Amino acid sequence: MTEKFELTSENLERFEKEGITNRFEEEIDLPVDKVELPSQGLLYNSRRKLVTIKHLTTEDENVLSSKSLKESGDLTSYLVDRKIVEKDLSSSDMFLGDQLKILIALRITGFGPLFETEVLDRYALIEKGVVEYTKVVFDLNEFKDIPIGASPDEDMLFLYELPLSKHQIKFKLLTIGQENRIKQSIEAKQKTGFLDKDKEYFITYSNMESIQKIKLVNTDKWITDRSEIEKIYKKLALGDGQKFRDYFNSISPGVDLSQEFESKRGGRFRAILPIRQGFFS
């Protein structure tokens, strides 16, 4: 849900104190909304838990239809950066869940809260053994935030004990920009032959990137050297790596994109909102 308000001359001073640019004076007639971030700003230096977005208007049509932005995969990030008023938080510095919340809010401003699409009928698949797609209407106002599932320390790091080795790790959640740089690094290494082109490396490399410190079992010293952390991680039992990733995902802030629908076959099933081409139309 977004908090709607009218931009008036009386609150311009307050907005500037909050880090909002003076572009408001040039765009005083544009409606704006406040969006509360699932992360509550706990992992941003600004501690910003609310962002201001300008509504989608006909001026954004060229952006949404840009072939080059769609092909590059940069459309959502470009759109978020274009519509956020505050200058101290860019899309690359955000966590994925916060960006999703903003994209949903933007879609509501431009097209309303209802989104019709086709999804796989999981009731028909699981109960009847039939692969069947059905039209559903998502109510974008009904999605709930998923808050951060643990408390970070003063360095914005989280503590976790690996269940098998009993080593302790301190790790950070990764922003969109950090995840993109990991993907780009993997692609570059695959092109040069350093990594196998037919294998998936993102989970391994993102796990290693997120770990900032390791304390081995029965020791008191925190290891912070990147090369040492990578060596230790690569020798962990597979179960430790998987459990760490599960915990990482479980505490990450986000939006529950699932809603329940009626199956044509008589039962009910839950479907995940597909944010893909056509979401902004």
Describe the protein.
- This protein is an alpha+beta fold and 281 residues long.
- The protein has helices at 12-17, 61-64, 67-72, 75-83, 96-111, 122-128, 176-191, 202-210, 226-234, 238-251, and strands at 2-5, 32-36, 50-54, 114-120, 133-139, 144-146, 158-161, 168-171, 211-215, 254-256, 258-262, 268-272.
- It is built from 10 helices and 12 strands.
- The longest helix has 16 residues, at 96-111.
- It is globular, with a radius of gyration of 22 Å.
- Helices cover 34% and strands 20% of the residues.
- The strands form 5 sheets. The chain has a 3-stranded antiparallel beta sheet, with helices on one face. It has a 3-stranded antiparallel beta sheet with strand order 7-8-9.
- It has 2 domains: 2-146 and 255-272, no CATH class; 158-251, no CATH class.
- The two termini are 20 Å apart.
Q: Which descriptors would you attach to this protein?
A:
281 residues; alpha+beta; 10 helices; 20% strand; disordered N terminus
Tally of structural domains:
2
Query: Using only CA atoms, what is the Rg?
Result: 22 Å
Instruction: Write the element-wise H/E pattern from the N-terminal end onward.
Output: EHEEHHHHEHEEEEHHEHHEEE
Which strands sit side by side, in order, in the main sheet?
1-2-3
Query: What structural class is derived from the secondary structure elements?
Result: alpha+beta
State the helicity in percent bands. Answer: 25-40%
Uncertain residue segments = 1-28
Strand content: 15-25%
Averaged pLDDT, please? 87
- Spatial separation of the terminal alpha carbons: 20 Å
State the shape.
globular
Oligomer: single chain
Number of strand segments: 12
Main pleated sheet: 3 strands, antiparallel
Tally of separate helices: 10
